[in-house]
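Exercise 7 asks you to align residues with tokens for two separate proteins.
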Amino acid sequence: MKARALLAEAGWKDTNGDGILEKNGVPFVFEIITNQGNEVRAKCAEIIQKRLAEVGIQVKIRILEWAAFVNDFINKRRFDATILAWTIPMDPDIYDVWHSSKSGPDELNFVSYKNREVDDLLEKGRGTFDQTQRKKCYDRIQEILAEEQPYLFLYVSDALPIIHARFRGIEAAPLGIGYNFIKWYVPREEQKLVMSP
């Protein structure tokens, strides 16, 4: 198994036969935290736990109530690993997530990622209206993030939106159907008024 070989090459070995890799007497154990009420994230943590156990890494899972999760763990940087999600708007300005200046308390760069080139590209990208130049900046940022792996991007959630046939102006796009919701409408002759007491 290639993962075990790479871990052994990095000095991780099961020296006491308990099935958990160690290095310098320290077992390879970490905790993943995520929030209550999100079954997909909880199952994802279980899959990670199972797969890493196969190569000798012990993963503990902790599911937390949302307010405690954010206030006591994410904002205070009290976690080994976490499973969360991001939604990026059509204009992929990711300054608040990746710029090094946004790593303070209650800010979105809670992994304290810092890369001078990424900072420069974020500033350049949000500082121009030239879409071609912005795309170059954001494409390069994606290359850097793929190489440095400050996050391990796991999946894009599937969705099956259902919208009544009365709505018009909906256009499917790779981004999904909600990107242009501001242009949706119901023709006047199909509008229904619902009054509540």
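Second protein for Exercise 7:
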Amino acid sequence: MHFRRLLPAIAAVLVMTACAASSDASVVPGRVIVRYHSDATHTQRVAVLERSGTASQSILPGGSRELAIADGESVAQTVAELRRSKAVAYAVPDYRVHAAEFIPNDRGRARISGGWRRLQWNFNGPAGVNAPLAWELARKARAPGGRGATVAVLDSGVAYERYHRFRRAPDLYASRFTRGHDWVDDDKHPNDEESHGTHVTGTIAQKTNNRSGLTGLAYGVKIMPLRVLDEYGNGVGSDIARAIRYAVRHHANVINMSVEFDTYERARNIPDVISALHYATKKGVVLVAASGNEGTSRIAYPARAKDVISVGATTSNGCLADYSNAGRGLDIVAPGGGDDAPLGGNEWDNSHCDPSVNGRSVYQQTIWHDVRHFRLVGFDGTSFATPHVTAAAALLIATRRLGRHPKPAAVRRRLLSTARDIGPRGADARYGAGLLDVGAALGP
């Protein structure tokens, strides 16, 4: 009998200890959450309020109630009093929450810790891809920045090494490049002579949390540089086909193709490229490509191929960019910068879009004037939207969010199903499944 009488007192001590163990900042003062047993009468509930010195404020979804503490007692004391009542199923403090986000210390142009956020709207903010949450989730999955995945970049090369007149971009990791190839000069040194490929690579894998420059969405991946574009940004289809097969043979997990054929080209005109894309998909490699920059309703190859995730571009307003190709076959959109497209129609609220205002660009460190000098440069285009999706695919693979060896179709489904719908309800020709949300893709 004595032991039974001690139980409520012991429970009260335990509750108060638990509340005290939590940081004062983690508990909302002056209120608690309570749920009554389903058979508790109105009279019993009123009695609970009177004994605990609380007042009912609101009913929460699911049937619990928010109570205000009216008698001046602490949250811990009030919770203990509530738990002593037989009419109460449970009583808990109302805990504060915060975004589980990893905020790197890269300085951007602001020269302050975290200053990258002022420039990289594409990673952070309402028009961004929810990068901070994605970084935190990847760290919790023991795959920080997508560590363990390899991304092949088919482009103008990358400023990745010190070789003759070439230099590595200072904000790219020296140790995170695999062997690549240059099909323009036919050698094993795919150095960038144009700047395009280095910028694209920066969005994927820029050094992050190094107190310098900007951040990369999948900063932990290995990059396989594959040069298929010359110093003027031009290339040929046969080299694209060769590069795709090379990437597959050398164990790339994702291939980024920020390249496009003319929109009038058809699959029958580029059979070697189409065959290489099929081969890559069959071997389990995720393919991502730019929809094109002509502002038409026709997707350019290789993005138009069924094996490829096609990426359109959005602006800092979260609107379709005026240059971005859209239409049938568009899978998803990501930040590409530039001006808003002139969207007509009243089927959705596009009042936030303003084609008359100059939009913001996507920034990364890249070549400036010659291959020895680098600076933060802003570019616009579907080319620069594409690496966001590539990085997201690499993070999915590295974190094993979809299992150890997810098929390309599973990666595509996850990215599209977690995209934020920003146009007419559901998938549409302007935005595909919506704006990439990497944090949601890596989430539950």
